[in-house]
Specification:
The complex is a heterodimer. By secondary structure, chain A is an all-alpha fold. Chain A has 12 helices and no strands. The two termini of chain A are about 20 Å apart. By secondary structure, chain B is mainly α. In chain B, helix 3 packs antiparallel against helix 4 and helix 5 crosses helix 6. Chain B is flat, with a radius of gyration of 23 Å. Classes of the chains: A mainly alpha, B mainly alpha. The interface between A and B is large, with 65 and 65 residues.
Chain lengths: ~270, ~250
């Protein structure tokens, strides 16, 4: 397959490279313009403490090297990843049960959809009542934020499994659990990846908001603390790391979908 | 019994079981941790409803602003290819950035009041709209515009017959996604900027360990979320149905 696709690509390689190059420079120029507008806009109209690109670049090395920043980043990202893993394991189990069983689906669909639609920030007061002002409260928030989008997507995926696959499995007398693990789970992977992408974004927001609310060490609290003491340039570095994580998660999951499920297009793009 | 009937019976049983469990949990665990359903319903006082109405005003203002700016700007990007190429990566980056991280900056620059809260809701909602609209703009095949031009189509006709029909369904998807984000922005703004609406009710009730009111407020916000999201899906399905048919 790779040999076949590489030939036409190589043939049009020069043209493609030129096209890529031209859009790249347009994007780069736009980025420079945006930064210049930011810099001069802040210089002209905003108070001195407001973040500007030159200020952010000036503080970047010292912030990234500081122990406080690194431990904050590790705390937030660790909590997001841990929350995602927990939500993934539980969410796949519940989602597949929902997708494959009519009774389970009808029993819990309104709960799942309701809790998915609920703005997760709203349960922060409740979470602090249950878990106190601790790391566990942040973890609970990320799990809660991520869980329901995984359940809904896993259920969609499990519903979309072609009946033929299951029938072949049954013909070979595959036990029910084996069929779930070896047929339903792999077949619903593309949906699951879409769910994980959504869940990761929600978990990241959940972690940041939880840190604002419960004041535990993390990037959200780093931003809150520094912006309160008028160190906006330092705080922007943390925003950049969060943005990088958001973009990184999305890029990773898009890549995985394209790499392992090239036939899958939920929103077919014409080009 | 038909499958449909059976489905509804199971759903009703599920809801009844949930309500019973909630009541039992509330009575056995202790009212400070879980308020029983009966107490929660009792806590739905007029003041909680008024708080919800105030929150809804914030939501509507910020959301309307993000639609009013996001959709026309997205359409502009659909028409002007160079501008789209220049900005689409930055829109995608901002769409993936947790906007909640910007709340402390807004607080220290704009202080308290209604405007900074509207800005928070706007920032939460506008990027999914822009992102999806740009996605729609990318989906327009250049041949369509070229053919329209070859037939000397006027700018007006080009918008009416090519750009709008192609881009609007994507914009609606963005608007649907924006509803959920705007709700999060709404509650976050009410928590972390000047306290108001349902966010203030939640915060003051949790500080005085009035768990029943916390539950009541969460219940109302959840119902609001379900209602708005269903509305969004309905509108999207009604006007963007052709996108799923290929």
């Amino acid at each position: 397959m790779t040999a076949e696709t590489r030939v036409p690509l190589a043939a049009s390689g020069a043209g493609l490279a030129r096209l890529m190059g031209s859009t790249f420079f347009v994007k780069l120029a736009a980025g420079v313009v945006l930064l210049v507008v930011w810099e001069f806009g802040v210089n002209a109209w905003a108070p001195a403490y407001v973040a500007r690109p030159s200020g952010v670049i000036a503080v970047l090395p010292s912030v990234i090297g500081s122990g406080a920043f690194l431990s904050a980043a590790a705390a937030t990202l660790g909590s997001v990843l841990e929350g995602l893993v927990i939500a993934l394991v539980l969410g796949i189990a519940v989602g597949i049960a929902m997708g494959r069983s009519f009774v389970v689906d009808r029993l819990i669909r309104y709960y799942v959809f309701g809790l998915f639609a609920m703005p997760m920030v709203a349960i922060l007061p409740l979470i602090t009542l249950w878990f106190g002002y601790t790391d566990a409260a942040r973890l609970a928030t990320t799990v809660f934020a991520a869980f329901f989008s995984i359940v809904l997507n896993a259920a969609d995926g499990a519903r979309a499994v072609p009946l033929d696959y299951l029938e072949v499995g049954r013909s070979f007398r595959a036990p029910r659990l084996r069929a779930l693990a070896d047929i339903v789970l792999p077949a619903s992977m593309p949906y699951l990846l879409a769910g994980i992408r959504l869940a990761a974004a929600r978990a990241l927001i959940g972690a940041v908001v939880a840190e604002f609310f419960i004041s535990v060490n993390g990037l959200g609290f780093f931003i809150l603390f520094n912006s309160r003491s008028f160190h906006h340039n330092q705080a922007i570095v943390a925003v950049m790391v969060l943005a990088g994580c958001g973009v990184g998660f999305e890029a990773l999951l898009n890549w995985a979908t394209r790499r392992y499920f090239p036939w899958y297009r939920r929103d077919e793009k014409v080009r | 019994m038909s499958a449909r009937r059976l489905g509804w019976t199971i759903t009703a049983a599920g809801l009844a079981a949930g309500a019973t469990l909630w009541e039992i949990a509330g009575r056995s665990v202790g009212a400070a941790f879980v308020a029983p359903l009966s107490d929660t319903i009792e806590a739905l006082t007029p003041s909680v409803w008024r708080a919800l109405a105030s929150s809804l005003g914030l939501f509507a203002t910020g959301f309307a602003l993000s639609v009013a700016i996001g959709v026309p700007f997205g359409l502009l990007l659909a028409r002007m290819r160079l501008l789209r190429v220049a900005l689409e990566s930055y829109i995608a980056i901002l769409n993936a950035t947790p906007m909640a991280a910007l709340i402390p900056f807004i607080l220290s620059m704009m202080g308290f009041g209604f405007a900074p809260k509207v800005l928070v809701v706007f920032l939460f909602a506008v990027f999914p709209i822009l992102y999806n609209t740009v996605e729609g703009a990318r989906s327009i095949r250049p041949e369509l515009i070229e053919v329209a031009r070859s037939f000397r189509s006027s700018e007006r006709a080009l918008w009416r017959d090519v750009l709008l029909p192609f881009v609007l369904p994507f914009a609606l998807t963005g608007i649907r996604q924006a509803i959920g984000r705007a709700l999060v922005g709404m509650v976050a703004a009410e928590f972390f900027l000047s306290a108001s609406g349902i966010g203030m009710v939640l915060q003051s009730a949790s500080q005085s360990i009035d768990t029943a009111t916390v539950f009541a407020a969460i219940l109302l916000v959840t119902l609001l979320g379900v209602l708005l999201m269903e509305l969004g899906s309905w509108v999207e399905g009604r006007y963007a149905a052709w996108r799923n048919i290929r």
